[in-house]
Amino acid sequence: MMSRSKLLAGILMVTCLIVSVMNAAALPSNLPCDNGDGILIEDEVSGAVCDYMLDDSSYSLDDVGDASYILTFWNGSPKSVTDSHDREVTFYRPVERIITTNPDNSRMVIALGNLDKMVSTDECTCSGCILPRDGNDEKIAKNAWESLQIYGGGQLDDLPETNTRKEIDYETMAILKPDVVFDATWYNRGDLIEEKVGCPCVDAGAGFTFAESYEHISLMGNVLDRQEKAVGLEAYVRSKVDMIESVTSQLEDSEKPTVYFAPRGAKKGFYDSVEGRDFTRTEAVYEPLDIAGGTNVARDCTGENVNVPPEQIVAWEPDYIFVSWSSTSALGEPNGVDFVMETAELSEIPAVSNNNVYSCIYPYCRGRPLDRSLLNMMYMAKCLHPEEFRDLDLEAEGNEVYRQILGIDGVYTEMAEYQPFLKEVN
């Protein structure tokens, strides 16, 4: 799956703790390692649970003298949360060591101020889904990369990678002794991770609706005891949505142009038979477009993967077309806008004949990044309703988005050097 040296490069040394037989009088009655007869005997109860609670030098009983330390952070009781799959996940000690398996959850850990607690993550968090790289895999926004410091002063991509999209290294996860694993909602493997790694696993993730993003922020803020920070982040996102919606909600339906959204770009033309996606792949629900004051022509389509024939796009006669730009190389890859404008079959579409075909930000990255949803919402609003949003400064707003989510300024400005369309409508 990946080199063992990469996996083990960032593993912190963990000293094993040998737990002796203890009198239950020193233990809270709801400690699950108490077998009920007044004696704590590790090999008679769940090994995974006892390992999670006791076998960690960060919480050495030699230091605190009493196992009830584990429960002191929540008034002497375990803490439970309900995750995105309605699973009740219980914690018996505070979260100090975090593993994420997808960029959306990594991004939220960073936004809530806990990057220094991450001990491993997935390949995409490290390779450019949080901060971009160019076509040669070189870091864009190098100052930002240097600002995202993990334990030991390393950078984000120095974290061990314990999973890819298709594979997961449970053994290395267990060696790292996390207090929690944040897994992507769509994998639905929380119970399996808990069984194999021996720690709580929270299924969490963002979506293309801001209501889903608010739930994501709140859930992770609760798990990480960062409720105040989560409330502030949600308030910021709501303020940006309200800023756009306060204008577009006043428009009549007839004033909202119809839009075809090609979120997968058009590098392979109409359709990529291998990936099953390209210009003819769209989204029936993309709330940033709706809030921006556009009418999604695919809104009545059903299913998660909406692929339509080119003839359907022509029949819809969209007033505007947005084609996502996935390249972050200044040299660029095949431009989706060029493909649309130069394809004879599309020449009679109003969007093409009126030159209303625009690039937009690629909305995915092994998930649905909140920063990209916010940026596309503002960018699309400015494209669709230039007069109403003539005073909207995309560069200033974009830099603020990344300052709020990553704690770093100037990221949007650097990205715009590699994706020049970001400057063309400012």
From TrEMBL:
The cross-references to SUPFAM superfamilies, in alphabetical order and at most eight, read: Helical backbone' metal receptor (SSF53807)
| UniProt cross-references to InterPro entries, sorted A to Z | ABC_Transporter_SBP, ABC_transptr_periplasmic_BD
Q: Which PROSITE patterns match?
A: FE_B12_PBP (PS50983)
Which species does the entry assign this protein to? Methanococcoides methylutens
Top-rank taxon: Archaea
Q: Where is the Fe/B12 periplasmic-binding domain?
A: 97-388
Q: Supply the name of the protein.
A: Iron ABC transporter substrate-binding protein
Among Pfam families, the record links this protein to: Peripla_BP_2 (PF01497)
